[in-house]
Design a protein that fits this description.
The structure is a homodimer. Chain A contains ten helices and 17 strands. By secondary structure, chain A is α/β, with parallel strands linked by helices. Chain A folds into two domains: about 110 residues, Lyase, Ornithine Decarboxylase, Chain A, domain 1 (Beta Barrel); about 210 residues, TIM Barrel (Alpha-Beta Barrel), CATH 3.20.20. In chain A, the strands form two sheets. In chain A, strands 1, 10, 11, 12, 13, 14, 15, 16 and 17 form a nine-stranded mixed sheet that branches. In chain A, helix 3 links the parallel strand 3 and strand 4. Chain A is globular. Chains A and B meet through strand 10 of A and strand 10 of B.
Chain lengths: ~375, ~375
Amino acid sequence: MPRVLPAQPGMALADVDTPALILDLDAFEGNLQKLRESISGRKIMLRPHAKSHKCPEIALRQMALGAVGVCCQKVSEAEAMVEGGVPDVLIANEVVGMTKLKRLAALTKKAKITVCADDAGNVAQIDIAAREAGVTIDVLVEVNVGANRCGVAPGEPALKIAQAIAVCKNLRYAGLQAYQGGAQHLRGVAERRAAIDTAIDGVEKTLALIEGAGLPRGKVTGAGTGTYLFEAASRVYDELQVGSYIFMDADYAKNDWTESGIPRFEHSLFVWTTVMSRTRPDIAIVDAGLKASSIDSGMPRVADFPQAEFQKASDEHGVIKMNGTPGFALGDKIKLIPGHCDPTVNLYDHYVCVRGGKVEALWPITARGAVW
Amino acid sequence: MPRVLPAQPGMALADVDTPALILDLDAFEGNLQKLRESISGRKIMLRPHAKSHKCPEIALRQMALGAVGVCCQKVSEAEAMVEGGVPDVLIANEVVGMTKLKRLAALTKKAKITVCADDAGNVAQIDIAAREAGVTIDVLVEVNVGANRCGVAPGEPALKIAQAIAVCKNLRYAGLQAYQGGAQHLRGVAERRAAIDTAIDGVEKTLALIEGAGLPRGKVTGAGTGTYLFEAASRVYDELQVGSYIFMDADYAKNDWTESGIPRFEHSLFVWTTVMSRTRPDIAIVDAGLKASSIDSGMPRVADFPQAEFQKASDEHGVIKMNGTPGFALGDKIKLIPGHCDPTVNLYDHYVCVRGGKVEALWPITARGAVW
């Protein structure tokens, strides 16, 4: 399936055809620096989540600025990262079924791989896969600290899984996965802080039991862009799994950041789109719909034109109400800020990396579609 | 970017790893037949929309059962269809900008290509692209018959665009694109019928003006799965652009079909998913989230277990409330019916085609990500 590349290095952004996924390199690099500065001096490791970008080029730049490795959600994502040169991947998720576990075990021969578990039967299967591959696999217990997705309850249930891991010959108990995903998009700072305080309580209670049972402490890993300074300040979390800070989507931008201490990350990720129909006075139709910008967390925003409102997306069309905004002639190209960066990235094969109005590079999104 | 194939022909569905996009061939072929029977004896052409499936293997099967060609939304989609052996493609959409128009003109040397327009300036550009390529391009006027997306108003505005096309040396005025996209998902049959009656009125009014002005009638093309028998019965529409009938997603299934005359198409498209966390009594977490099944038109439904409710999707997780449904043990695989088939298909590189519990074929989704 040969595919036309969306751009060539050196060409003007104005000449890039649409829709295309644009990465503003100045804003992106600024976000990397802002995060680094915001945690500098703290005893905390940085392990950004690669589910947001799915791109080894980005992972390696995060590591060049101090990240110890990346997180992934899927074995196939981890395979793409390792293939792209990332030496240390935490699959911050459960991996269920022998087909995937065999791939997981094979991958541990190429890079340092850690995985999560929340079920004793699954732990036993990971052990079998490790034994068959002749490897030892690091396993974290996923604790449900409020996201109510995967994970066992803090305290005794978590201890039981830790013990189940520790008794397996081919596994190493490595600590706790404690990501409070439900807190990240709570709009108020106080709400987010309260949710993380509760998460920290659950982690501390669990750590006390685990150490009391004679198991090693291991590491505590979690946190997202909405709350990471609270986890970093906790002295309980050892590692931050921030993902969206590099792009800053429209949904995250709705959070209140005042007095959170978290820097204002800039929007660096855009969907480049063309006005393709202009038959009604206050409506512009653009060529980016829901196959170009995911609407699961709300519509995209129109960059640079705050009055213009992206009202509706169908498969390949976006309806923009101009609200008196001048311009938007047929053929004009504009930038959209995606509602949610992660699933938007997953629609594209390349980032068109832009600086000063010129294309500087194309970065392949090698883990696009890596759902296994 | 080498990618693992999601399955191999001959293997049992039970062994196919998840998430995977499953096409039930019996249901799919049944839907093709049902559509054919429902329009047999009518003087109407069938031109299914390939934006739903993005797969030449499917397009060729539709043509083998009488379709005259397919519709596409994008030049890149049309390129993939022509590359896959489809000889006749209508781009049922505007194509704006010389970059795309040059590709459009080049494609007319390989297959019969038609495009839509709703702007005189755009018409002039299509003419330039045709002249430069030394071809004649067929152009339809898109009429806004109620979808309020692209298209000019019926009547005089449509006539003006038709005349703008007709005077261009390298273009041929080919008729009207009159798709009432807003009608397809109106739940009641009477509402859908009323919306199509209004569309038909607009088309008739426009045809009268166009023929009165001495232009050829051309063809009238439009209709979707929700309403196509109303357009077929109109004696005004010549061609049907149905897309979703082959898959029948959860959103379309919410329409009332009673006394519409439209057959009950069966669900043939599924997301195959694994129960990956089971730590709370009435909740099962599956490994298919919004990167595996698009939620733009609502959550997926759990096939075969009507009580179980897919409540929430995050990137790579789905939360299913069991509501007392037994089973769903860790590692169990279940089928989801996507909320909206088109953007779900666009997440995958292959259909895993299944019959009688076995994988019969893999069909590549060659136009996946074809947004240009």
